[in-house]
Amino acid sequence: MTLRDQLQTALKEAMKAKQADRLSALRLINAAIKDRDIANRGEGGDGTIPDSEILSVLGRMVKQRQESARAYEEAGRLELAEKETAEIRVIEEFLPRQLDAGEVAEAIAAAITEAGATSIRDMGKVMAVLKGKYTGQMDFGAVGPRIKDMLG
């Protein structure tokens, strides 16, 4: 079952169970994917993005909500922060398991070997390998400095 199918099934189940908050989050996910589909069509694609790109859309959605929740907490708006956190939980159901620190280090080491990277100039090649294999499973913003440390 594709990720798109899983999302549609979850949407239908949320409707039947009258889970308003979950339904709202699932609709936001579908809207973001639809926006990306439309952009893909404009770029000469067939109008449907692959699962790997859906994972990156979901990853961006989680990151946006984490930032919003942090901002709401700092402003003392705990009810809004909780809403963002609830949406994160729904989105994360469709993301693969996040790699722990040890697994990330192993993945980086393997990607460096696979890319034949020898210096910091090869960082883009290493990132490309990691994104190809681990989209949605690690925070690439946090991985960049670790790659630099291993290459530097």
How many E strands? Answer: 0
Order of helices and strands: HHHHHHH
What's the CATH topology label of the largest domain?
Hypothetical Protein Yqey, Chain: A, domain1
The CATH superfamily of the largest domain appears as Uncharacterised protein YqeY/AIM41, N-terminal domain
Total individual domains: 2
**Main sheet attributes: strand count, strand direction, barrel closure:** none
Short summary:
Helix content is 76%, strand content 0%.
What does this structure look like?
With 152 residues, the chain is mainly α. The protein folds into two domains: 3-92, Uncharacterised protein YqeY/AIM41, N-terminal domain (Hypothetical Protein Yqey, Chain: A, domain1); 101-151, Orthogonal Bundle (Arc Repressor Mutant, subunit A). It is 76% helix and 0% strand. The protein has helices at 3-16, 20-42, 51-74, 78-92, 101-115, 123-134, 140-151. Helix 2 packs across helix 3 and helix 3 (51-74) runs antiparallel to helix 4 (78-92).
Task: Provide the descriptors you would attach to this structure in a database record.
152 residues, mainly alpha, Hypothetical Protein Yqey, Chain: A, domain1, Arc Repressor Mutant, subunit A, 7 helices, 76% helix, globular
Topology (SSEs and partners):
Layout lengths: L2 H14 L3 H23 L8 H24 L3 H15 L8 H15 L7 H12 L5 H12 L1
Helix pairs in contact: 1-2, 2-3, 2-4, 3-4, 5-6, 5-7, 6-7
